Amino acid sequence: MCMLTGVYLVRPPLPTIGGYEGIGEVHSLGSAVTALSPGDWVIPSLPSSKTWQTYIVKNQIVWHKINKDVPIEYAATITINPLTALRMLEDYITLNSGDAIVQNGAISMAGKCVIQIAQSSGIHNINIVRDRAGIDEVEEKLKKLGANEVYTESQLEVKNLESLLVSFKS
């Protein structure tokens, strides 16, 4: 969406088709295609724009086959969200094991990646999600990924956030 709103340096002429994430299913093949079969899941080999469309016809070299055992939401975002999460954790400040971070939107795919990377690096992660039905299930899923703390927006007040962070640092 950032490309369409002009946040990225690349600004395609409008109207355009959006999307960097996505997964496709092969429906038919040209006679020279040997590496793919109908029904295969594919993503662009290099991050590619214009993935939010119903049909795309491109050379087989553009596509990378994805194992269908990978959950579709991970497969569809693998070229964007893990790298976004890593950059958020590494580009702004040096974080060390024992440090703490807070993120909102923790239920997003990028948020889930932040949790996993932080957990594997020994970084205490505090995660904020929107209030919703089934919040106990959401919290359980995030904790299985490595979330240390999960709060809804209504459970936290901004004025208490700093004291929460300080309590984890000491």
From TrEMBL:
<keyword id="KW-0521">NADP</keyword>
<dbReference type="GO" id="GO:0006631">
    <property type="term" value="P:fatty acid metabolic process"/>
</dbReference>
<protein>
    <recommendedName>
        <fullName>Alcohol dehydrogenase-like N-terminal domain-containing protein</fullName>
    </recommendedName>
</protein>
<comment type="similarity">
    <text>Belongs to the zinc-containing alcohol dehydrogenase family. Quinone oxidoreductase subfamily.</text>
</comment>
<dbReference type="InterPro" id="IPR013154">
    <property type="entry name" value="ADH-like_N"/>
</dbReference>
<dbReference type="InterPro" id="IPR036291">
    <property type="entry name" value="NAD(P)-bd_dom_sf"/>
</dbReference>
<feature type="domain" description="Alcohol dehydrogenase-like N-terminal">
    <location>
        <begin position="5"/>
        <end position="43"/>
    </location>
</feature>
<keyword id="KW-0809">Transit peptide</keyword>
<keyword id="KW-0496">Mitochondrion</keyword>
<dbReference type="GO" id="GO:0005739">
    <property type="term" value="C:mitochondrion"/>
</dbReference>
<dbReference type="Pfam" id="PF08240">
    <property type="entry name" value="ADH_N"/>
</dbReference>
<dbReference type="InterPro" id="IPR051034">
    <property type="entry name" value="Mito_Enoyl-ACP_Reductase"/>
</dbReference>
<dbReference type="GO" id="GO:0016491">
    <property type="term" value="F:oxidoreductase activity"/>
</dbReference>
<dbReference type="InterPro" id="IPR011032">
    <property type="entry name" value="GroES-like_sf"/>
</dbReference>
<keyword id="KW-0560">Oxidoreductase</keyword>
